[in-house]
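Exercise (ungraded).
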Amino acid sequence: MIYLVLAIVVVVAGLGVVVLNRRRSPELPPTRPQVTIARTPKPVAPSPPAMGSVAAPEVVEPEVAAPEVVEPEVVEPEVAVEPEKPRFRDRMSKSRAALVGVFAGVRGRTGITDETWDELEEALLRADVGVRVTNELLGGLRDRVKSKEITAPDALLEALQAEMISRLSGADRVLHFEPGEPDSPNVWLFVGVNGVGKTTTIGKLGAAQVALGRTVLMAAGDTFRAAAAEQLGMWAERSGSDLVRGAEGGDPSSVIFDGIEAASARKIDLVLADTAGRLHNKSNLMEELRKVRRVAAKGKGRVTETLLVIDATTGQNGLAQAREFGQTTDVTGVVLTKLDGSARGGIVFAIETELGLPVKLVGLGETINDLVAFEPAEFIEALFSE
Amino acid sequence: MFDTLSDRFDGIFKRLRGKGRLTDGDVDEVLGEIRTALLEADVNVAVARTVVARIREAAIGAHLSQALDPSQQVIKIVNAELVNILGGETLKINYASRPPTVVLMAGLQGSGKTTNAAKLARWFKSQGRQPLLVGADLQRPAAVEQLRTLGRQIDVPVFSEASDPVTVATRGLAEARRLGRDVLIVDTAGRLSIDTEMMDQVRRINEAIQPDYTFLVIDAMTGQDAVGVAEAFHQTLAIDGVILTKLDGDARGGAALSVKEVIGRPIAFASTGEKLDAFEQFHPDRMAGRILGMGDVLTLIEQAEQAFEKDSAEQAAERMLAGEFTLDDFLEQMQALKKMGPLSGLLGMMPGMPKELKGAKISDDDLKPIEAIIRAMTPLERRKPEVINGSRRNRIAAGSGTSVGEINRLVKQFSEMQKMMKRMGGMSVGKKGKKKMPNMLGALKGGPGGLPPGFPDMPFNN
């Protein structure tokens, strides 16, 4: 038996080395989306978060190099759903009990002690913020406490909160919709692992977009999961959107391509393209998704958003998900779902600050109106208030 | 993406190597790293604290043994502790004396209840039972439709109707009796643990059908909240076991540890892939290694056993270690490896793989040119690559559709592999290592520290 183990290890290692050496030349980075967005320099935030490729344009203009001269209209930043401020906090507050005790402990002490730090650490970890980010945040605060800049527990909590909010500021959270020729629909593509709520998100977002007066077509690109297209079909019906679906087990790229072509022919404004959930470590499925992303930009449509859907219960694996999906499909933003449960979704803090993927939408409940714009200050405040 | 525990230890123990004995401060530092590893694996903060405390006790008691180097010793203790927590009682299904045996599936939205209801039905079928699936998820659009499709795929009948979930479950039970089905699996809607209305609904379903087994379906990617969810469901339903899903992802799956520790019920099944047969009974020892980031050697062995013919593999391995490994053997191993699944997955499971390899995207297509080159060689060339001269090289390149440079590279690397194997053969197995094998295997199963010394880059030996 041990022979077997040795044999496999050696052969796999050997193959790995051989294959790697065969491909010395580094892989080309994934091609940028064809719909490029002219970028205006982003105003420097007080503590600029590490933003990646998704910089934060204040004003989005259609690509300058477009063949026919379209007047460079300035698209007003538009949010899909009116943020309902009180709601965000209300929903999250359901689950605040765990944190209340912790911060009451911190506040209750006269000074900042070792227990204070332990409790802060525990609170952040419990919210799934992650070890590394937690250490970073608390490390900065420790220095400020050491230098006597901060002395009171209340001030410490405020400083932590302020630091977290500033790390989330300056990101572009607008869902980009760029008006163009009537036969050139915007395409928003939804990706993510299994069971995070992609189809449901599309259903709710579709309803919101219809309410904004846009015409919407849903493309049932999840051809793998049994009855996924039926599920999307029900949402299409409820929201008054069109639906394009293919055969179960069919090629998702072609379903989405057909959807975009149909939308173009029917002069529909926006295509919401669903994809099958897939684990980010399955390279064949990720390649399939890369193709979907490529093909979606091939026809008349313009892919103006690729949204990664992440479930608030997700732990540290969320970072790996964001990294892989980001590389494969040029993700432009994150949708955080199921935040109305007891999970706090702290992993998106790590995703946004480390990978520069802005959270754009948050799912706070089951009804159509429960998908709202992400508000960093309220998100952080909801984590902290008692 | 995270450092493995052994990577972390590496740094600490390098510094300690000269010291011979661990001080209390050293132990604290090591325990700190263990805690970080657990937290990065999504083990709940409170659970991590108690686990670390237990490990501290065990480590202090074990101070005496000087046979192993400290890192081996610590990893062994940690591993044993985790296996201990994850394992314990395993779930054995006792079928109801008056059929059907009723199984209720519960969990959050998106954890995989519907798919796993079907997988479980398939598993019962493979045990010679006749299951009936009941679709009581009337919440999510098309959930029942999904269950019906899955039912057709595994040839298991599905019962549902458009009424309310409690009625559907009750009627389903009557239907199972009428049809003489001996296992009833009830799929329910996903619900948040804090949604009192929905929790009340599942409680009523529970009362109506009096399940023999209630399974909580938990996603392996779940973070800190796993504990809260498990507690809430356990209070409402009295969970009998957990089904851990999406284990084919790269999440460390610390949620399994948290849930087991908090509700004290075994992880009964694990779902390891999208296909309906990717469902197996849970192996605590493997999960422990995974949480610590030590690779999944045992799964690898099992997959290998299925893919390789045992005798030929052993012969090949023996030849390998004796340095008589030929390109023919290489080709044969390569083909067997392909049967084990995608190469990148295998690399991920391998403990102690250098980082560049682990993260490398290697698709099975990358093997094709190598295969082509070997197939374009004559038997003599495959046995003795050193006979390959200029004209042979040109012929092979033309025959395989590759270039001379690629052939050179393959031959060179193959000879390096041969050398490496020879070195290992000399060190690990002695002359005829058969006698040592059971011992080594036992050590391997018990966790790390059991692989032969000098095994290159194995984390266990750091």
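Further reading is listed at the end of the chapter. For now, observe: Chain A is about 45% helix and 10% strand. Residues 177-331 of chain A form a domain with the Rossmann fold fold (CATH 3.40.50.300).
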